[in-house]
């Protein structure tokens, strides 16, 4: 299941949000190419859910949504993740696409384990992260890895191809 963070406060620029949308679309295409059922959650002003359980959403439905998607949401990302988790069966793999590394998200990732769900984070980097932000991000990465969760940081769509070792959309 892919979860796209569409909260306004998450993004420092429109370019950063567009990278998140492109990364989510590329991951969706990868899942479709691998013939995997895929659910998609778009966590913005309104939450949009495509597919649930073993029934994946269609690529066309999600892509149509992404064309008009905006960073217009507010509220808790952890709440959106919890809601998404409850709609999918045990054993699901959740990929969060977001620039933020929030402590309550780590708590939600841990709660996913109780449902035998696994999480990973595709971190959407800004163009010029400040040193304090970079240090915090390294702490986030170390904490995720210590708990067995994957993370990659991308500043360009090409970085995603390297992280997944496959082509992008």
Notable characteristics:
169 residues; seven-stranded mixed sheet
Lateral arrangement of strands in the main beta sheet: 4-3-2-1-5-6-7
Number of helices: 6
Provide the gyration radius in Å.
15 Å
Order of helices and strands: EHEEEHHEHEHEH
Named CATH architecture: 3-Layer(aba) Sandwich
| Total E-strand runs | 7
Let me know the average pLDDT: 86
Using the coordinates above, name the CATH class. Answer: Alpha Beta
Main structural class = alpha/beta
Q: What would you note in describing this structure?
A:
By secondary structure, the protein is of the alpha/beta class. The protein contains six helices and seven strands; from the N terminus they run βαβββααβαβαβα. Strands 4-3-2-1-5-6-7 form a seven-stranded mixed β-sheet, with helices on both faces. Helix 1 packs antiparallel against helix 2 and helix 3 packs parallel to helix 4. It starts with a strand and ends in a 5-residue tail after the last helix.
Ordered list of secondary-structure elements with their pairings:
Layout: E1 2-5, H1 14-33, E2 40-43, E3 47-52, E4 55-56, H2 59-68, H3 77-87, E5 93-98, H4 103-114, E6 118-124, H5 131-146, E7 150-154, H6 157-164
Parallel strand pairs: 1-2, 1-5, 5-6, 6-7
Antiparallel strand pairs: 2-3, 3-4
Helix pairs in contact: 1-2, 3-4
Briefly characterize the structure.
The protein has 169 residues and is α/β, with parallel strands linked by helices.
